[in-house]
């Protein structure tokens, strides 16, 4: 049984100009201990799909799916109380822009403690020890001191490590990382990616990596889904995708990598439009 199985997922938003279709019948399957990359340019529906799984889309969104199951449980029929027991514990998510995702009014330690308080039966002393342990596990220096720091007193990379610590606090079976390195410099990006992969390998959890960076895909993924304008263009294991991309849009993405440039000009998606299919 797949860890996560979604069939024919459609998401439509009500707007002042009429309905906007963000996803148009996309399928996703994630096995345990697998790293799935969902790749595509901004607006392709990558984040929308995972926010639908998390139940975090606004009321303006209409979500339909033939199947949306986690470990065989139908996520579409869970009550609010049942969903809260799953989301944040068994399924967790790292959001874009870590500084914006943390509450500026509370210390790092307080925010990590709240996650444990909600989803575990640990005592106050046990939660305090677990917070320090989590901060150490994600490589935060001097956790005994940092536990009392506020988000603005930490760098972007450190805040992202806090978000990762928060996401893995309850040992989730599935971790969704939404553009986890977007706001970070190149050196910190590498550290964060290495950390996520190491945590995934150590725990055996499933990992969904949402990105537009094909370099991230090459480094982290076992399998890749390529999206464009709310549709799945291609799905393949990572080696097959890079060695023999089948879809014109996938070839367009790969050709846009600087190392694949032919001449002085990088190709654009429109250069491949004549091949059809998108």
TrEMBL record:
Gene3D superfamilies the UniProt entry points to: P-loop containing nucleotide triphosphate hydrolases
Organism lineage: Bacteria, Pseudomonadati, Pseudomonadota, Alphaproteobacteria, Hyphomicrobiales
Keywords: ATP-binding, Cell membrane, Membrane, Nucleotide-binding, Transport
Protein name: ABC transporter ATP-binding protein
The keyword Cell membrane is annotated on this UniProt entry: yes
InterPro entries, A to Z: AAA+_ATPase (IPR003593), ABC_Ni/Peptide_Import (IPR050388), ABC_transporter-like_ATP-bd (IPR003439), ABC_transporter-like_CS (IPR017871), Oligopep_ABC_C (IPR013563), P-loop_NTPase (IPR027417)
BP GO terms, sorted: peptide transport; transmembrane transport
Top-rank taxon: Bacteria
Record-level Gene Ontology MF annotations: ATP binding; ATP hydrolysis activity
Positions in coiled-coil regions: none
Residue stretches making up the ABC transporter domain: 6-254
Entries under PROSITE patterns matching the protein: ABC_TRANSPORTER_1 (PS00211), ABC_TRANSPORTER_2 (PS50893)
Family: Belongs to the ABC transporter superfamily.
